[in-house]
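Input record (one chain):
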Amino acid sequence: MFYHNGWGVPQDFGRAREWYEKSAAQGNTDAQTGLGWIYQNGQGVPQDYGKARELYEKAAMQGNAYAQNNLGLLYDSGWGISQDLSRAREWYEKAATQGNADAQRNLGLLYLNGRGVSQDYVRAREWFEKAAAQGNADAQLKVGWLYHNGYGVSLDYNRAREWYEKAAAQGNADAQTNMGWLYQYGQGVPQDYARAREWYQKAAAQGHQLAIDKLKELQ
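The corresponding structure, as predicted from the sequence alone:
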């Protein structure tokens, strides 16, 4: 873990792999998951989705929520395996019910977009809210977006702004852009082009194209 993330030591994926392998061989599910992540992303080893899946499966079958979410992501994306949204949902659900915020967000996305399940904005919001309450910025953005558009909830610009602000404060460029939008058009806040410009500038600094375009409108 320390070599993988560079905590207190120079980041060294090779050394991280060595230690993960020793611990994974002893059945440590966190090590199996970490090793799977290294193979999934090709960190110090050739990228190998098949190897990643094998390692995730070992950990996931033992109840490791991170491995369950990552295994769901492989099925969701079709990385190194035939895409199977039903299997993705099953693994996301296992992790989400253990409180894994990424899995809760990913499960919300399936319901939001009707991928492998019937589109259901209410179910999407429920899962997004669970992840958002744990500080997941993308889930906070999505809850705000649902309130902004009145999908699965009554349209409420004030609630949208509250959630956008939480995500924007974490640097989420989409949320920063949406904050600019609220101020530009006076949705739930007094119309304020200066505040709109400030938010668009934050997102534009991260290369967000819509924010860049909106700044041009305000010139």
